[in-house]
Amino acid sequence: QKPTATYMVTVVLFYMGLSYVALAKKEETSKRQRRHYLKVARRNQRLLMKYAKDSPWNFKHKAQLLDAELKSCTKKKGRADCMDNTVFSLYHQAIQGAKREGFVQEAAMACELTANYIQSYSSVDDSTACTAKALAERYLTHAHGLYLRWGSTAKAAALVPWLAEVSGDFSPPSGEFFPPGGL
User: Which of 68, 75, 117, 138 lies deepest, with the highest CB count within 10 Å?
Assistant: First the structure.
C-alpha cells in the first residue's frame, strides 16, 4: 500500500525530525532523551523515504537531509577525526535535490547544516582545521546567498557573525547576492 498524506504532514515530519536530531546533539540531553529523539527522527526519516517513492521531487532531498543529520550524530569508533564520506554525500545530495526542485530555503538550510557538520571536525584535529574551515566557509557563504534569494534577510543576517568567525573578514554583500559557481 502506497503512503498518502497531505503535504503539511510531511513538512511537520521533516522539521520535527530535524529538531529532534538537534536536541539529541545537545550536550545536556540525557542518554534516555537522546535515544527517544533519535528514534522519532529515524521513524520520520523512514516515512519521508516512503513518500519520496511516490513524489521524489518533494521529499527525497528532505529524507536525505534528515538521514545526513541522523548519521552525523554517530561518529565511527576510532574515526572521530575525519568526516564520513557517506554523510557528506547525503548532505550534498540534499542540497542538489532541494536546489533542482526549487526548495531554496531547504537548500540553504542543508548548506548551513553541512557547514556545521564540517566545522565539527575542525575542532577535533588541528591538521584538518584549515581545510575544514575553508570548506565550512564555502557552504556558509552559499547558505547566506540562498537565504537572501529566498527573501529571508533576517536568517541571512544571523549567519553573518558565524561567517565572520569562519572567514575572518566576511562582510555581507550589498544588494542581491548569488554565490559564484555552485555547490
Answer: 68
